[in-house]
Design brief:
The complex is a heterodimer. Chain A is an alpha+beta fold. In chain A, a hairpin with a 3-residue loop joins strand 13 and strand 14. Chain B is an alpha+beta fold. In chain B, 45% of the residues lie in helices and 21% in strands. Chain B has four helices and five strands, in the order E-E-E-H-E-H-H-H-E. A three-stranded antiparallel beta sheet of chain B has the order 2-3-4. In chain B, strands 1-5 form a two-stranded antiparallel sheet. In chain B, strand 2 and strand 3 form a beta hairpin. In chain B, helix 3 packs across helix 4. The chains are: A alpha+beta, B alpha+beta. Chains A and B meet through helix 3 and helix 4 of A and strand 2 and strand 3 of B.
């Protein structure tokens, strides 16, 4: 069993010892006895599917609302199924015994369910490399391959005072301050730390050669954050809440677009631009 | 005809965006940007409309002639139809 405090939520994971980065959870270990988010993982020869109404379907995934109000996600291959409640507080992942990539499936669904749980409680997760720099947080957002890890490696190598909060899915909590928080969900890179700092900027990364930081239009800011914001595709109340949070984020935090070539010169250009705006 | 279910209209500074939620977000990745008149028509299309009612609504809000209003409505409906955002036939 893993117990941790992540982005102020008390987390209990059962059966997730083989999950990617389970070894990072001790950095966030805490146990005050309460549980806000619970995920159990079971490996079974077979697992029950509820009777209920199909409420959505997309490619290999079916969403079912059971007669008892539970919601289910079912993969048509029969390899796994997930049950969850309306706030993603109580979640059960069922994996068929012998399913390949079980560790990755656990990581994906624990991360996703936790992200959706945070939405219910004034928080969110970004697809980003979250860094803490001079007491403030910078979120380098972008799809895989846009250079998040490369830039964060360059930055932390150049300046040992800069630390990686989380290399894949840092959290943001909304209050008087927007705080960028480390989580143990660190993707392929395996770097994270248990700290929270005021979020100073969001940088939307793209591949490019000119290493230029620009301020996009409001619509472009929103579109960029939308691409990197974890939100449930098949649960409308939380999906709507996510839209409200994205709107708040871009209103309160500077957002930039950075087309870069992932070199030390790119890092210098980014640092110069953020310094000029007083953000680092 | 009316806008399909599953889209939220939001005003951001001086622009309007439409964001798919729920099942719609699986069918449409990303979002739609609208100008002021587009957002105006979008809001009215939350309830069933005909082309004629939209033209009349546009004329009541904007200082344009009927031919221009009709052309704008046609163009907007065509865009919605092409992107499969409308429920019901265009009439």
């Amino acid at each position: 069993m893993l117990r941790a405090t992540i982005a102020t939520r008390q987390v209990m994971l059962e059966g997730c010892d083989t999950m990617n980065h389970a070894d990072k959870f001790p950095l966030f270990a805490s146990d005050d006895g309460s549980v806000d988010f619970h995920m159990s993982v079971s490996f079974l020869d077979d697992f029950p599917l509820p009777q209920g109404k199909v409420i959505g379907e997309h490619k290999s995934t079916v969403w079912i609302e059971a007669e008892n109000g539970e919601r289910w996600l079912f993969h048509k291959s029969g390899k796994f199924a997930l049950s969850y409640d309306s706030t993603f507080s109580e979640n059960k992942l069922f994996l068929r015994k012998g399913t390949d990539k079980a560790e990755i499936l656990q990581y994906v669904y624990v991360t996703q369910c936790f992200a959706y749980h945070l939405l219910s409680f004034s928080g969110c997760m970004l697809h980003a490399s979250g860094l803490t720099c001079e007491g403030g947080g910078i979120a380098l957002c972008g799809a895989s391959g846009m250079g998040k890890s490369t830039l964060s490696h360059l930055w932390t190598t150049a300046d040992p005072d800069v630390r990686v909060l989380c290399e894949d899915a840092p959290a943001v909590t909304f209050g008087q301050d927007l705080l960028l928080r480390g989580t143990p969900f660190c993707g392929n890179d395996n770097r994270c730390c248990n700290e929270a700092v005021p979020l100073r900027a969001i940088v939307l990364l793209k591949k490019g050669t000119d290493n230029r930081v620009v301020v996009p239009t409001t619509a472009q800011k929103f579109a960029g954050v939308l691409e990197n914001f974890s939100r449930p595709s098949h649960y409308r109340p939380l999906s709507e809440k996510a839209v409200d949070m994205m709107q708040t984020l871009i209103q309160r935090v500077p957002v930039y677009v950075f087309a870069h070539d992932a070199t030390p010169a790119a890092l210098k250009a980014l640092q110069t631009a953020l310094k000029a705006d007083g953000l680092i | 005809m009316k806008i399909k279910d599953g889209f939220l209209l939001r005003k951001l500074a001086d622009t309007f965006v439409v964001v798919p939620v729920g099942q719609a977000s699986l069918d449409l990745r990303g979002m739609i940007t609208l100008n002021h008149s587009g957002a105006f028509l979008w809001e009215h299309l939350q309830a069933p409309q005909t082309k004629q009612t939209l033209v009349e609504t546009l004329l009541s809000e904007y200082d344009v002639d009927e031919a221009r209003a009709a052309a704008d409505v046609d163009r907007f409906l065509e865009l919605l139809k092409t992107n499969e955002l409308l429920d019901g036939p265009v009439e």
